[in-house]
Structure formats: structure tokens, C-alpha cells
Amino acid sequence: MLVLSCGTCATNAPDGSECMPCASCGDVLNVTYDRGLTLPRDARVVFRSRLTSHALHERSGVWRFRELLPPVNDSQIVTLQEGNAPELPAERSAAWSGLEGLSVKNLGCNPTGSYKDAGMTVAVTRARVAGAKVLACASTGNTSASLAVYAARAGLPAVVLLPAGHVPTSKLAQALDAGAIALGIDGDFDVAMQAARELALRGAVYLVNSLNPFRREGQKTVAFELLESRGWRVPDWVIVPGGNLGHCVALAQGFAQAQALGLAERVPRIAVVQAAGAAPFVRAWQQNEPLVPVHATTFATAIKIGNPVSWRPALRALHATGGTAIAIEDDRIAEARAVLARDGLACEPASAATLAGALALRERGTIDEAADVVALLTGSSLKDVASIERYHGDPSKTLANPLRRVAGDMASLERAIAEALR
Ligand code: F0G
Questions:
Q1: For residue 176, what pLDDT is reported?
Q2: What does pTM read for this prediction?
Q3: For 287, left (φ over 0), alpha (ψ -120 to 50), or beta?
Q4: Are 27 and 97 found together in one domain?
């Protein structure tokens, strides 16, 4: 049996309350397993061997850890074989940040190009099992793309609430293409989120934002996947971008469960990185006070959020893991993005906040230069090509690489190549 309970006041919520915050204190709810989680025999071997299974859902980087998830019949699973994102060395990024032990886990390799798919496969599966009629989310773009695609697979309608004019074209295109009802509203993400919550409270929609604990259950498998792929060797630090803060909470939950189940001997420290213009959580962390919402500004539109829903559990996650939070200026994030791209690991701006955060935390002495550090890249570079074009079109940028216009004759081409190689 599953129980929904509040992480702050421990109140249990009635079955089917997953689209709502705790009725007593307003914090987000968690899925708890009343009989605990039970691993299969030889769990490490079983989890790994599923990668070669003939069953689509078993190869999924999420469902191969299914004993750690809400139970569900195979036929109900809505999957695109998400997860199993590679963790790779990144030589230039390591040199740039001064962290020789830095590696990068590229969650942008997921089916819709962002880490959201790990949570969405579980949220949409759960929605279908619960008989939900219309799924919905507020989004800066990636959640909406992911919901649209998974809802299409499930044959369910999806409504996505977007801050009009602030969502990169490719993310919006994904949602439109998959048939979602896309509603661009006047206002920022925080306004859209409030509207989505009200719709859910009225019972009009089934909300799959990360306040839905089933979505975080799926998202927590990133922690298991990360540990499993490195033979359960626990890194010293895992660095994540912070927006609405569901991801860092889910990760911390996954790492804590891995330790409690004896799969990992400790938990890594989690560092949350926000853009300086959208850093209410960093302030709350540094001042050890409740979060004060801000009007968010940053070119990293995915994390342009001024009133994050999950700040309370995110504070708990940092305390529990001995983690930290840091804010980074947009220019630094843009440069980090370009460095990652030169490592063949192009990502969208929000993701590059992790590399920029790694450098800043090393400079501060928080992260030791020999530490084993994993930076999570949460979204593919193809999610926001306009910001890349802007960067390379600006000669003041360190790694600017503009398009060179040239006549098509051999002499001009050879001269252009020689000049570029000089
Ligand atoms: N990275 C990317 C690429 C994102 O799209 C988001 C959030 C984050 C990081 C931050 O994660 O919210 O769990 O702290 N995107 C949400 C969306 C808000 O609607 O797509 P978080």
C-alpha cells in the first residue's frame, strides 16, 4: 500500500490527493511505502541485467528500478525507454573548472531531450492507473514537452500552461507537435504555476508538476541510475540546476533510499545552482530563513522561477546531504555552456549552470580540486538554439565561433579554411 504524507508536518493525505499540497501546512506530499521497499534478490545484478531485456519497459532507466517505485502492471506502463543517460569525462570542462575529477551526466539524451522524462513516465503511468481524464502542468518549456509526449503515448489529453513569449521555440514546438493544448498566459512561470494549482484544486485537471509525488518517484531513479552506472561508487558531489527545486529533492530522496537499502555506503553532497537573477532559494539557504519570492530574470529560461514550489524539502535535502546552494551570473553560465559544447556535451543554458557552479564552489574552497564531482546536464542544447546563436554572434564572447560567409570558389574556400585554422 502507498501512503501520501507530508514531509513537514507528517500528516497523511487521502488517496488521490497527489495533485495537491498538504492540506494542513501547504508543503508538498511524499509517496511512502507502508511496508517499506523490498529489493529483489541480487538487486545489483537484477537492475543491471534488465538492460539487456527484450521487454521495452525493463530496459527503461526508470523501470529497471521498479521495485523502488509504486507497483504497477506491465501493461499500464507508459514508457519511451527513458533514462540510462551516459556519464562521461569532460576534459575541457574539468580544466576550466579546475576539478580534475569532474564528469558530466548528460540527461539531455532522454527521449524528449530533458531529464523530465524520468519523472514523467511514472507520473503519466500513475495518472492513467488513477483514471485521470486531463493531464496538466505549468512549465518553462521542458516539463510541457515531456508531458505532451508522454500523454500522447498514453492517449490522454494534456494542457500545458506556459509564460507566453518566454518559452524557447523548440520546447513549444514539441508540445504543439504532440497535440497538447498549449495555453500561453500573460505573466511568468510563477503565475502559470499558481493557475495550474488552482485548476487542479477545482478538480479540472490532473497535475503532473513536481509537487506531484509520483513524478518525483520517477525522478529519484536518476540517483539509482547514476550510482549503478558507476558500480555504486558514490561521488563526493552531485551538482544540479535549481528552478522549481523538484529535481534536487527527488535526487536526495533517491540517494537516501540507496543508502538505506544498502546499495550505497553513503550519500553524495548535493549542490544546487541557480541563476543570480532567479536565486530566491540560494538566499533562503544562505540566510537560513523561509524563502522570499523574487521577480525572476535570467537568460536560462528553464530556471527562470521566482517562487519555487519545493523550497522547503529542498532545504531539507541540502541539510541531509551536507550540500550547498550557489548563485551564478548569466555571463558565467553562458561561458560554461560554450566550454561544455567544446567537450561535445552541448546543453541548454540552465544545465550549464552546474559547470559554472562547480568552478565557483572550487574557487570558494567548498569543493576540493581532487573531488569526485558529477555535474548533471538536464536539457539538450537543441532546446534553446537561439541563445547559442546569440553567443556565437557576439565577438566579445571567449569561445565565439561565428558563421563565416565566403564565396564558393576554391581559392576563397581554401583561404577561409587556412585563416580559420591559423
Ligand atoms: N534544468 C532544466 C533543463 C529544466 O527544464 C529545469 C526545470 C531545471 C533544470 C530545474 O529543475 O525545477 O526541478 O529545480 N524546468 C521546469 C519546466 C520548471 O517547466 O520545464 P527543477
A1: 98
A2: 0.97
A3: alpha
A4: no
